[in-house]
Amino acid sequence: MSYSTEKKMDLRPYLEDLERRICPEEEMRLEQEWIEFADGKCSEDVFVPRRKTAEPSISWPHVMINDALESYDLMILQQLTTCSENLRLGGGELLSVRSNYGTGIIPTMLGAEYFPMPYETDTLPGSRPFAGGKEDLLKVIAEYKPDYTKGLAGRVFEMAERYLELTRQYPNISRFVNLYNPDLQGPLPLAEMTWGSDIYVDMYEDEEQVELALDFFTDIYIDFTKKWKNLCPDFDKEHAVEWGLLHRGGTIIRNDAAMNISGDMYAEFVRPRDQRIIDTFGGCVHFCGTGQHYIDKVSEIKGISGINMSQPEWNDMEMIYQNTIDKGLVIIGMPEAEVVRAKEVGRPLRGLVHCGASLAAWEKKA
């Protein structure tokens, strides 16, 4: 469905409320603090940004994810609600929205089955591996012709176009709300999501085809990101914003699947592809779960500016710190509990750790 034919909502009350509450001076102050942090110039041991609170004048609804997936305007409203909450609670992340269609954007573009979650879970969708696994993926690779209108990719770009159309007449929103990269994952997660879990066995038994698939997804990641940036430019030439977190470079590679392989396998199969992406855009690497077993390999990517991680409690954090902040790499979005723990044991954070990971973190202080 094209956004030009989709039934539209009247979002003006929400746009007007947000436009009124955005204080340009406050947002520019926050931006400058983020730039200084990202550039390694934070004067405090840990970076804890905050903004002045700004209460809404209307009631903002909770939009369920499955509803947002079916309507561009509901997706925009859901995303703008996060900005409203940021302002209401005085959060320190920069205002940001995204085409929020989950991890299956590139897989469904290639023909993978879209997999929505049950409505009541209010959780982003995924995708299923190809029924024929490796053989189906190799056929897709051999016959591939770029078509960014297919699958969730089409909705990603059309939602962005609709958002830009709606916000053009609101100068504060246009200037201070960052429309950031959709979730493109990274070469290894994309290969796993389409090949299936057999890819881990085939790293031993069919190395050549695994390498082919990883190169294929690296090319798509780079091409997709370039197309996105033509529509939605980065914060500036040196920095980008994702999840409200400003960082040096133009992308954050999602490497969640790397928890399933050894550090040596990461260095052999994945790092050369991550290096190509960082060579092209600069930026960071994200991982959920355990990353201590390959963080030393990640830190050796030339031009990488930092990492983002979700579960410090599952990691040897001294090993993480030795291979990030001790080497001049920033950590963005660190959960508050880990910052508190590090301070309690006297671990210097060198002004390179940002404390604050989610709305939940702000609510705890509210």
Write a brief structural summary.
The chain is built from 16 helices and eleven strands. The chain has a five-stranded parallel β-sheet with strand order 7-8-9-10-11. Strands 1-4 form a two-stranded parallel sheet. A two-stranded antiparallel sheet has the order 2-3.
Provide key terms for this protein.
single chain, 366 residues, TIM Barrel, 5-stranded parallel sheet, two-stranded parallel ribbon
What can you tell me about this protein's structure?
The protein has a single domain (28-365), classed as TIM Barrel. It is 47% helix and 11% strand. The protein has helices at 12-21, 24-38, 65-69, 72-89, 105-109, 134-143, 151-167, 171-176, 187-195, 199-205, 207-231, 263-281, 295-298, 317-322, 336-344, 359-365; strands at residues 96-98, 114-115, 126-127, 178-180, 239-242, 245-248, 251-254, 283-287, 304-309, 330-334, 353-355. The strands form four sheets. It has a five-stranded parallel sheet. Strand 10 (330-334), helix 15 (336-344) and strand 11 form a beta-alpha-beta unit. Helix 9 packs across helix 11. It is globular. The termini are far apart. Residues 358-366 have low confidence and may be disordered.
